Amino acid sequence: MAIYPANPTRLDPFKNFQFRLKWDGQYVAAVSKVSALKRTTEVITYRSGGDPLTSIQSPGKVKFEAITAERGLTMDKAFHGWAGLVYNYGAALGSQVSLANFRKNLYLEFYNEAGQLVIAYKIFRCWVSEYQAMPDLDANGNAIAIEHIKIENEGFERDDGVPEPTEPTLSNVSS
What we know:
The protein is mainly beta. The chain has one domain: Roll (Pnp Oxidase, Chain A). The chain is built from one helix and ten strands, in the order ββββββαββββ. The strands form two sheets. Strands 1, 2, 3, 6, 7, 8, 9 and 10 form an eight-stranded antiparallel beta sheet that branches. Strand 1 (about 20-25) and strand 2 (about 25) form a beta hairpin.
């Protein structure tokens, strides 16, 4: 099987710098970094007392690692608003957490160099466990102010409904 069935002459893997993150049906503005999607399955080791010295290994509990998302600080309040659903400072006793809607499903889109959607992931039952509203401030620095969130999740799956697009070719190249 070709590694790119719709584009058999392509040899290079996809680059990691063209992506978009979506929740509540909206793209989140200015996201510049998203950490890896990672799943780990614990190993259960078992050995009966009368068995040889080797053990049997079986899959155990599955854990989905938290995802971090970073973006340049802007007037958009998407990170702040979602983090506030998990803990709303100053809210009345018993209403600090918005139990009805603090979890969101995310959609992570990944694009090729031509800007075509090539892969997407659905990420389930996410919530913000850490929120950095402002970075360290440095009057002598020369950097973009970054805010970030740490997102817990209960699983992800690749969206098989995203087909491999036929990549465009340059047909009118002048010398």
